Amino acid sequence: ATTAKMPPLNLGDELPNLKIQTNEGEMNFHNFIKDSWAILFSHPRDYTPVCTTELGRAAQLAPEFAKRGVKMIALSCDGVEDHNGWIKDVVAHAETKGDFPYQIIADESREIAKQLGMIDPDESAAA
């Protein structure tokens, strides 16, 4: 199946209303955002050192984003089960307490990442 190429997104552009699966369940992206701002950050794989460090720092900064009414969500090209295990590593590395502050989208097929222009569709299997 060929995915239609979406034009590049710029800051402030509206993302399509994607149906997504996260470590907390299935939802539509626009229902998650509602009338707030959101930050979506993407990582190619779970358990990589750089990605773990970045997600940990984002978890540490989550209260600051919440104060400003910004919802956070991540995307990784692994599944929900992997995300749930990875979250434990992120929490341990970042030394955060309490519930993990944001969801991680499961994109095993890499369709969302391709649709949003996050990875080259011709090299998506190697991402």
Number of helices: 4
Could you list the spans in which at least 5 consecutive residues all have pLDDT below 50?
A: none
* Total beta strand runs: 5
Q: What does the overall shape look like?
A: globular
Helical proportion, percent range: 25-40%
**Radius of gyration computed on alpha carbons:** 14 Å
Strand content: 15-25%
* Average of the residue pLDDT scores: 88
Distance between the termini: 18 Å
Sequence of secondary-structure elements: EEHEHEHEH
Lateral arrangement of strands in the main beta sheet: 2-1-5-4-3
Which structural class fits the helix and strand makeup?
alpha/beta
Task: Give the biggest sheet.
Answer: 5 strands, mixed
Walkthrough of the structure:
This protein is α/β, with parallel strands linked by helices and 127 residues long. 35% of the residues lie in helices and 20% in strands. It has a five-stranded mixed sheet. A hairpin with a 2-residue loop joins β1 (19-22) and β2.
Explain the layout of strands and helices.
Blueprint lengths: L18 E4 L2 E4 H5 L3 E7 L5 H19 L2 E7 L3 H15 L8 E4 L4 H5 L12
Parallel strand pairs: 3-4, 4-5
Antiparallel strand pairs: 1-2, 1-5
